[in-house]
Amino acid sequence: MKHAIDQFNEEWHAKPIGFVSYGGVSGGLRAVEHLRGVFAELHAMTVRDAVSFHAVWERFGDSGNPTNAEQSAGAAKNMLHQLAWWAQALKAAHDRHAHVPNGAS
Hints:
mainly alpha, two-stranded parallel sheet, 5 helices, 10% strand
């Protein structure tokens, strides 16, 4: 995954990033925390809220739908709201002054 992210270095600059993770007890949140640092180095803005499925094998029914859809929808709504806010803020900033990492010209 890290290699795939690195292949598009400049495309990540000044972009908002949200995470959806899944796993066992931690729900993939340790991987998300690692990726936050990766994206910071790529000049991207990660949002605080994420969608995480702890004990993923218990969170989805046979149909593939979440067993607690309201909880999942609430977390997704919060994250998407933050992504939209940051997308607008970063676009407005970019429109005023193009993002140039490390002050390079």
